[in-house]
Amino acid sequence: MWGYRKRLTSDLARWKANGWLTSDGEAGIARELAATGREFSLATALGILASVLLGFAVMSFVAAHWSEIPRGLRLAMLAGLMWGGYAAAGYFADSGARGLADASIVFAVAVFGASIMLISQMFHIEGYAPDAVAFWAAGALLSGVLLRSNAALAFAMLLVVVWWGMDVSERVVVNWPFLIGWSAVTAAFIWQRWQPGVHLSGLALTMFVIALGFLLNKGQAHSIVVALGLLAAAVAIAIERFYPAWRGSSEAALGYAMATAFVGLMGLQFFENRTTASLILIAALMLVLLLGAIAYGVSQERKSIVWLGYIGFSIEIMALYVHTIGTILDTSLFFLIAGVIVALLAGFAWRLSRQSGDKPDANQAVSP
């Protein structure tokens, strides 16, 4: 966001100097930009990191001396530290230091999590460990919503992912309630209009969907992952076509969809029992889809999609080489065939671009 602000500020000055933008227009754009997000500074970043470290310091110190501290003092210490963090957040918010206010909220949320663990130990409350993390995530979400803190919401999403991971490792089944927690935090990100948080949600959901391939049908459900990834990619492309204003969001969604389908296809090739013929067929499908993604990225001027396609193509070729290519056909012959095919496609694309570039623009005036 801060990179976008800096670039836009430079563009505004240039547009105004060229006479393309009025002073009133520049002021209106600046006001709208200020309302869409917050600046992120080095002080904010360091403050949030410090709050996390201090939170762990509190947990470690109190846990190490827990048995030596009287019970009443234990509760008072935990409550004082947590509410002290919220009080500091209020002070920084009133002072205009929103980043430091977020850091203080994160500290308070960290102490809240320590309180859950330590109070459970003090009163010998036993239960399913991931449930405590889920309760912690709910507290972080509540703090983020009530105090409009993006940092607390990001912490909540991380806790939801940790809760999901702990539960899956314990029971080795799909944790469907994860979608409830994910949806709640994602809704808060959208309500806050915080783009990095939406990206965090996309990453979390991608991890969940990819895990389905390893958890459903005894680890033989990667085809479901591929189908979901391709469906999400189709939806992202359709959204861009019918709602051009959502181009940025659809590009991010397409990237996550590509990653989902790619990992699903990798699972089909290398984690499920496949014959040589089926392996070659899936590998060919993978390469075709990746080349299609690269072509789409080039045609729509989406560098992130192009680079994802390049990276996926390289990983697929290397994986095939390491896994089985040496037993299917001569390695040099394989790379020769693949290289010739891609070179032919590159030449075809170049000819198309030349032909489209040679066509006269219908909107241009024709010289006599």
What is this structure's SSE topology?
Elements: H1 2-17, H2 23-36, H3 42-64, H4 71-94, H5 98-122, H6 129-146, H7 150-171, H8 178-192, H9 195-215, H10 222-242, H11 247-270, H12 276-299, H13 303-328, H14 331-358
Helix pairs in contact: 1-2, 3-5, 4-5, 5-6, 5-7, 6-7, 6-8, 7-8, 7-9, 8-9, 9-10, 9-11, 10-11, 11-12, 11-13, 12-13
Let me know the largest β-sheet: none
Which class do the helix and strand fractions yield? mainly alpha
Helix content: over 70%
The SSE string, one letter per element, is HHHHHHHHHHHHHH
Radius of gyration: 26 Å
Number of strands: 0
Terminal residue distance: 49 Å
In DSSP terms (H or I, runs of 4 or more residues), the helix count works out at: 14
Low-pLDDT runs of 5+ residues are: 358-368
Strand content: under 5%
- The overall pLDDT, averaged over residues, is 80
* General form: flat
Could you state the oligomeric state of the chains shown?
A: single chain
